[in-house]
UniProtKB/TrEMBL annotation, chain A:
This is Carbohydrate ABC transporter membrane protein 2 (CUT1 family). Residues 74-265 form the ABC transmembrane type-1 domain. The chain crosses the membrane at residues 12-35, 70-99, 111-133, 145-165, 186-205, 244-264. Its main location: membrane. It is a multi-pass membrane protein.
Amino acid sequence: MSAPSLHGRTRPNVVGAVLAWGWLAIVLLPIYFIIVTSFRAQAVYYAENPLSIPANPTVAAYGRVLANDFLLYFANSVVVTVTAVVLLLLMAVAASYVIVRSVSPFARRTFSIFLLGLAIPMQATIIPVYYLIVQLGLYDTLWALILPSAAFALPITVLIIVTFMRDIPKELFESMRVDGASDMAMLWRLVLPLSKPALVTVGIYDALNVWNGFLFPLVLTQSSGMRVLPLSLWSYQGEFTTDIPAVLAAVVLSVLPLLAAYVVGRRQLVAGLTAGFGK
Amino acid sequence: MTVAVRTTERVGRPGSASGAARRRTGPAPWLALPALAFFAFFALVPLLGVVVLSFTSWDGLGSPTFIGAGNWGRILAEPLTQRATVLSLVVVLLSVLFQAPVSLLLGVFMAGRQRYREVLSILYFLPLLFSSAAVAIAFRSLLDPNFGLGAAIGLDVLSQDWLGKPHLALGVCLFVIAWSFIPFHALLYQAGVRQIPVQLYEAATLDGAGAWRQFWSITIPQLRYTIITSTTLILVGSLTYFDLIFILTQGGPGDATRILPLDMYLRGFRSFDMGGASVIATILVVVGLTMSLGLNRVSGSHRMESQQEGL
């Protein structure tokens, strides 16, 4: 069977390989810099070569960050991300179920609206969103981050779930219908279990986006009690202007949860990133 | 995405359904209402709201008052706006020209199945885990003229004030944006290449086509939907880049990196000119929508793209 090697040999190897290794260096250099600097003592930051391994590695920078409400910001990020993703998935599953299973014009229009939503640069609506959040009395609360984050993620989430749910065999729905199952029963006992891979995938993808969001926290919250991780990095940069190791330690700490999630669910995550686009 | 279109067709053609499907009533439509209402309230209403607000005078604290087309005339006539518009178009153009080919080549390369490519694609993925805030802060330190890359390697060329010089700052921003977004697009291409039937390459090899010929005659045409999807994402995404440039330069030095989204933010939330900022926002929506719908039209498909990466 020569197909696999043939498959490999037909790639433009030279251009690809040169670019591939060059790009690897470009990707890894900043990451390496962040890590080594975060273990450097503040006192020697200006003296040692920035790319050298610290002569006396220390975790003191991490201590300073953790003593500075980092865990509160971390908890805020967890609350916002988990609530937004759960809310989002509940709504998206129900809507996708209707879009896939209903023949009504309403279902078709619902899908068109979400498809159109994909093409709109939602960032540009931040001013009315700010107005809305202020009017609702939600300014400077975590809800101010949860609700718009969930809403703006709906189009892509619905699209990915619909794409997946479409592959559930019709016969399964029909036999449950014949047995007299209600919509809720079908959703709960058929659609949810069978859509689980898609839900995990799109859930991780949405979580990544909500977790890393910057504009909503910047505009819709104010007090440090409502600060989430990306915004805390920005404010650390202001507070610790002369303590670069601490700022970069905060960067490392903010990436660790995602790195853990990546190590555990790499295949799911990559599938999630490509599912809605790659087909 | 083509799959999504097929779904639309199926929903739209009840006549083609099986006999059993015709008899069933389908799920209660109200199940779609929460998502629809929520999306309408927090995304579609604000979309109309931004147009309405562009005709008001509002400082962000009191109540907006209608002033007619005043903002539009004022904002469109401002050199700052014109500069920001040109800058935004430059950013869009250069982002596409840089990110699209590099992502394509990396994706094609990553689609090979040797072991070390597997390792490479794991490492390439890492930038996706960093928030824009983290990326921008890391690069700010790395590019520090005195204590960054220049100090490490000792080349004068690297010791420049990268973010402090108007002619360098924009290039640096474009590079950092590319660093951050190319992994995502390379992944799309990787997924696309892996769906190309191997038989096409086998047949071409039998016909004596070389690697280069196969790349242009098989890989590129087979990837056309991925190319359209990815390019549209880069186009509309680069129109709305905010976090990275905001933290890297705050639009400076001077106004050298003040692209439209930054202009919108600074006018609205720093200068408290929400009406003027809404004019910019409206322009962004119109340009973004036109670009993605236009590209869909040109491509002859009805595929829609996402702005997720821009958020």
